[in-house]
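Morning, I've got a small favour to ask if you have a moment. I've been staring at a protein lately and its backbone has me curious. You're getting the sequence in one-letter code plus the fold written as tokens. I've dropped the whole record in just underneath, so have a look:
=====
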Amino acid sequence: MTTRPAQRRVLQLTGSDAEDFLQGLVTNDIARLDAGLVYAALLTPQGKYLADFFLCRQNGAILLDVAEQLADDLVKRLSLYKLRADVAIAPSGLQVQRGTGPAPAEALCDPRHPALGWRRYSHDAESDDGRDWAAIRIAHLIPETGIELTPETYILEANFEALNGVDFRKGCYVGQEVTARMKHKTTLRKGLARVSVGGPVPVGTEILAQGKPAGILYTQSGGTGLAYLRFDRARGAAMTAAGLAVHLLA
């Protein structure tokens, strides 16, 4: 099955300093471009999420595939960091195609999870075929830009390590100190989890456990959903969202 994700923009970075420039900014190791598609994020100095995106090499440039609603701000922020580096950031004119069936030529495996199939960058991407990507994301704890991933997100609480979105051996990047401290010095008390829910509720509905705030319910499909939870209140507790029963799933 193939589909073109809605509202993506593909930028291209060129110039002799493009790879070093990105290496000092993003959460993943740019050396992984040698193996294919790279998933990464740009963070604030305080370690909070600004944008997530895919990177790959194509025709002498580095392509950057980002949600349309974040693209303008991301370009502005990257331009501020650019200073005198030999880097140019421009639209590529390409579209994104993705699928879970046989991959066409030039397709790249989605590095987050095998269930997400592949992505391809071209001028002739096909139209949406109705694939339930939300169900795939829920099944494998995969957050989405602008839904589970917001300016208040710490990426380790959003499952980024399991999704191959952060490298703890690459050295410094913006927000690295906070991210490394969360990895090595603390046990996560909050984060994404799969839940069952007794019916559809609006994205962003508060989850209560014994009358106390326990988290937020986000993407839902087929009676299951992704929730951001306080684990100390969610585990072993009876939870509700808009009066409907919510249960933590393994």
